[in-house]
Amino acid sequence: MRPKIQLPRRGLRTAVWSLVTALVATAGLVGVVLWQHSYAMDEQRVSIRHGGHTLNGVLTTPKDGRKRHGLVVYVHGDGPVDATHDDGYRPLWEANAKAGYASLSWDKPGVAGAPGNWLDQSMDDRADETAAAIAWARARPDIDGDRIGLWGSSQAGWVLPKVAARTSVSFVIAVSPAIDWLRQGRYNLLAELRADGATASRISAAIAKSDTTRRLLESHATFEEYVKATSGDLDGMTADRWGFISRNHTANATQDLHALRGVPVLLALAGHDLNVDTAETERVYREVLDAGGALTAEHYPDATHSLLKQSIEQSDLKVTLTAFFSPRSLFADGFLDGQRQFLKELDRGGSATR
Questions:
Q1: CATH architecture of 42-180+254-348
Q2: Which residue has the higher pLDDT, 233 or 156?
Q3: What pTM did the predictor assign?
């Protein structure tokens, strides 16, 4: 008869405790992730009718027991953005909730099953859409119609003042907004080439192609003409994208910004912005809005265009891990608190400019 094989009692204890430790560590990590993705606000899906179709939105409200709240209406930047911006807005919404404000956002047309195509829109179309959302919000009993403002990033810089010209807003938070479409495009092109360490010949070739594109836009060229002029070197350009650029390439926010005179504006600018010339943006905002005494400009030296920490955004792995384990830490130091303080100051009647 074969002898029974037995683990040493000490070895068995070690194996059991190793398993227990692994299980506890796993449970701890799950707990951390769940806690980090639990936000101090209530969230609900909403539907907004506009132009014969439905905007699929998300409305978040503070958990403070109040029946009515002010509202921050979100205006997306470029690209196919859904209502939560792939969950990236939630830390911002939570900061708003801590200041006593609700937040409203919606899927762009054609995104996440929404009807339409966002590439068919002009900046005026986007402003009309936002004004309709504000009208919808004002009709709700849980929203204070006298405390509704806008939050917008990047491309939204051409939309925000157009909205203010259509309907009254109580404040604006403008994050990395550009002034002139074509100048912004050229700035972005050169900034990215320099960041890549491009050679002089590569830069010259890129500028030549950019100049060709500008001439085609000025002559109202078709997409087929663009394809022919660039010898098929489309660099991601599609017919829909060409149509979008053709409709919007003359956008310049300078004159539209006059609609924001006297409106409290928080201008958030990044120190490592490869997309927008922040010096031009701040100069124009100050020239147009400072006379009204309601502009606050905040600078985040270590931030990128998206107001994420540069040390994180430069690594896809860091972005993924931080978004998973500590999403609030994605943003530049002080960015979330700065918006919360801005909103609280509004309710206190403050209007100090910086």
A1: 3-Layer(aba) Sandwich (3.40)
A2: 156
A3: 0.88
